[in-house]
Every structure is written in structure tokens, then in C-alpha cells.
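pls design
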């Protein structure tokens, strides 16, 4: 059985590294049938970023990888940029908490400008560390997150949220934060969602589900928007820490082979949800902004 004609095959959240497999991983994705990647930036160095220029060069690395993948594999890559929330926790003891907040705020401003210039499509990852932090750092995290919402509103783009696993109340809290900031809740994407959250329980926040076999089966009939992702880390030191980059196209192919009547459900994560959350068709991409 073939995939529906014209269907894009989209991994909504992955990382690539210049010191990892990089383009080779994207080649594997393409060979399995993948067509589009949302590529989240990451800290590519051992040291934590301590200045805006550290983040600028990090974003430039992400953009360079995106271009290289596109040129060498034909896979379309959409960069997603932000200072990683846990960086704040690591930077605070080194440069002081106020300076660490300022670096994150200005890096978010930079990411917002890149969205406005069409060099990125969303802010991500933003949010909260997935481990406990002390009260002072937690307050700083909240201040940065508030700023992220404001930047997303002004740049008119989605936010991809990193956080611990969320329950119904957690989704509701994110939706409330979005509404307060003037951001549509469905433009807030909870990345690395590891459990199905029923549509009425997610307060219109969009889950990006880890593409595990069982979870995919559970959510495949849900109404959108929702996405599939691997959160591939491209870290040779941690093989198998996350799903392989070929997983999303393999899940799509397995669904079509095992339940051909459900093949049309794939339009939800791969096409309709991108249109709903991002405002453009994944095959066409965003309109040039300026
Ligand atoms: Zn990630």
C-alpha cells in the first residue's frame, strides 16, 4: 500500500548536530519516506551559552544544517529557534541570574526577528526545565517564559514548549498563559507529549506526540491539531536515547500497510495541523514575510 498521493510526511520535532550524523540522519529519514522536518535548535557546545552572540552563532548553525539537509537530501527543513530553558539554570551560577535572564530575553527577541524575516517558523524550545529548580531560578524561568509568549504574539508564530509531562491542569495553565499574552492556545505546542491527552482535556493546546507505536495507535483517530515527532537528538554518545529519525515515516507506512482504511488520518498530523497551527501548508511553506 502506498501513502496517500501528495501527503507530506512530517517529523514535527528533531535536532541535528554538526558533530553527529547530521545529513546522514536526514538521508535515512528521506529513504523511509519522510519529506519535512521541523528542526529545533540546541546548544551545540559543551559550555552553556552566556551571551547573545553565543545564541546567534547557535542559530546560525541550525540554519546552516537546515540548508545543507535541504540541498543534499531534498528534505524541507523548518528551523525552530529559542534559548533552551535549562540553559538558564546552568548559566545563572556562571554569570548571575539577572544576566542569564537578559541573555535569554535578547535571544528570544533575536529568534522572533528571524521568524519575521522568514528564517525560522516558531519559537522553540521555550518553557520550563523538566527537573526541579530553586525558587529564585523558577521565578527567572517564569519571567523568560512570559517574554517568550510576548515575542510569539508580536512575531505571530507558534511556541514549542519544553516542560515536564503535563496533565489536564497543566494544559489548562498553558492555555491560560497563552490567552493572557494574546496568543491563540492552539499555537502553543506541547512537545514530547508521551501520553494521549483527549481533545476535550487539552484546553486547545496542541500536543506533539512522541511517535511510539502504541501511542500513535491511540491518537491516530483524534481530531487535530496534533503532531508526531521523534525528538531525535543526533548525539552519537546517546544512541537510542530517543526515537530514530526514520521513525515517523515508518509509522506512517506501517499504518497504511496494516489499516489502509485509516491512511487518510495521516493528513491530520502532517498537513491539516501544520495549516491550523502555523497558518501555511507544509508542502508550500510560509509566505515570504518581507
Ligand atoms: Zn527537543
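designed seq:
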Amino acid at each position: 500500500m502506498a501513502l496517500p498521493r501528495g501527503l507530506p510526511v512530517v517529523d514535527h520535532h528533531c535536532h541535528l548536530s554538526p558533530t553527529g550524523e547530521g545529513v546522514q540522519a536526514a538521508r535515512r529519514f528521506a529513504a523511509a519516506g519522510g519529506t519535512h522536518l521541523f528542526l529545533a535548535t540546541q546548544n551545540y557546545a559543551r559550555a552553556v551559552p552566556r551571551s547573545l552572540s553565543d545564541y546567534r552563532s547557535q542559530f546560525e548553525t541550525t540554519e546552516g544544517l537546515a540548508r545543507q539537509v535541504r540541498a543534499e537530501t531534498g528534505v524541507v527543513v523548518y528551523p525552530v529557534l529559542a534559548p533552551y530553558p535549562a540553559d538558564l539554570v546552568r548559566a545563572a551560577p556562571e554569570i548571575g541570574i539577572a544576566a542569564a535572564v537578559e541573555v535569554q530575553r535578547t535571544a528570544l527577541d533575536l529568534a522572533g526577528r528571524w521568524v519575521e524575516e522568514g528564517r525560522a517558523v516558531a519559537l522553540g524550545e521555550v518553557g520550563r526545565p523538566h527537573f526541579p529548580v530553586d525558587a529564585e531560578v523558577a521565578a527567572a524561568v517564569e519571567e523568560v517564559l512570559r517574554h517568550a509568549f510576548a515575542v510569539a504574539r508580536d512575531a505571530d508564530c507558534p511556541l514549542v514548549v519544553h516542560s515536564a509531562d503535563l496533565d489536564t491542569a497543566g494544559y489548562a495553565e498553558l492555555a491560560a498563559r497563552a490567552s493572557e499574552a494574546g496568543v491563540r492556545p492552539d499555537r502553543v505546542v506541547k512537545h514530547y507529549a508521551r501520553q494521549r491527552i483527549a481533545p476535550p482535556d487539552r484546553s486547545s493546546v496542541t500536543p506533539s506526540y512522541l511517535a511510539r507505536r502504541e501511542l500513535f495507535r491511540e491518537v491516530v483517530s483524534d481530531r487535530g491539531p496534533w503532531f508526531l515527532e521523534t525528538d531525535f537528538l543526533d548525539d552519537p554518545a546517546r544512541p537510542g536515547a530517543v526515537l530514530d529519525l526514520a521513525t515517523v515515516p515508518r509509522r506512517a507506512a506501517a499504518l497504511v500497510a496494516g489499516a489502509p482504511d485509516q491512511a487518510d488520518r495521516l493528513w491530520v498530523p502532517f498537513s491539516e495541523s501544520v495549516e491550523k497551527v502555523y497558518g501555511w501548508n507544509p508542502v508550500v511553506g510560509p509566505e515570504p514575510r518581507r
